[in-house]
Amino acid sequence: MAALIEDEITAILAVWKRNHIEKQLNYILNQTKKPYQIWIYQNESHIGINIPDDVKEEYSISLIQSKDINFKFHGRFMLPLMCNTEYTAIFDDDTMPGEKWLENCLDTSKRNNCIVGANGRTMKQGFENKDDQHMSAHGDGRPVEEETEVDFVGHCWFFKTEWCKNMWKERPPSWDNGEDIHFAAANQIYDGIKCYVPKMPLNEKSMWGDVESHLGHDQHATWRLGDHGNLRSKIIKFWYNKGWRPLITRG
């Protein structure tokens, strides 16, 4: 098996119905730690994507399209299985990282051997008996003054590419949500991998994972759906029964 390219990053930008790809691409291209390559993954064909060939060539940008099939939330997590870089960063279509974000992720991941995300969640006591989400938030448009271990991360995921294999050792309990929980739980169960939200100081937004969090409050936001909380609660219970242990259960 060929060795992965050390310290390099493949950035995967997911596109569905939000038309922010040009804006997001600019944020990615302005990173202090440049991605080795950028894969734009379009799920179905709701919007047009037109990137000039010379731009694709200069920045190693590839467009991957599933025009007629919706592979939903989990599909993009299959792509790292084909990456040739040591690290992968997957971004939601509403997530705009500060220019030092990938640098911040790389530093945090190396120090803690962990999955890194722009926002995180930790379970509260008694979560396993609740029928809706019962957790605390970290990041998610707010500063984080010290890096913090969490139960799972979302909006963007930075991780060692080889860890992606753990996600596909179990079939998701639902394809309609919960890829963030699935990814964290499977990696903890099979490889003991933790999740962290890195330091994102109030006065240093260049280190933030998302500097335009308002974009996630539009009509396409899944958290607006009526059954969102209950579905995620069922997914959390599924993984807890599989052996995933949130921080609150580990003292």
How would the global form be characterised? globular
Helix and strand run? EHEHEEHEEEEHHEH
How many strand segments? 9
CATH architecture: Alpha-Beta Complex
Low-confidence stretches: none
Largest sheet: 9 strands, mixed
Q: Mean pLDDT, nearest integer? A: 92
Q: Percent range for helical residues?
A: 10-25%
Number of domains: 1
Radius of gyration: 17 Å
Assigned CATH superfamily: Spore Coat Polysaccharide Biosynthesis Protein SpsA, Chain A
Provide the CATH top-level class. Answer: Alpha Beta
Total of DSSP H or I helical runs spanning 4+ residues:
6
Oligomer: single chain
Given helix and strand content, the structural type is alpha/beta
Q: What is the rounded distance between the termini?
A: 40 Å
Beta percentage is: 15-25%
Assign the CATH topology: Spore Coat Polysaccharide Biosynthesis Protein SpsA, Chain A
Description:
The structure is a single chain. This protein is an alpha/beta fold and 251 residues long. It contains six helices and nine strands. It has helices at 21-29, 53-59, 101-112, 164-167, 179-191, 228-242; strands at residues 5-15, 37-43, 61-66, 85-91, 114-123, 135-139, 148-150, 152-160, 194-197. The protein is globular and about 55 Å long.
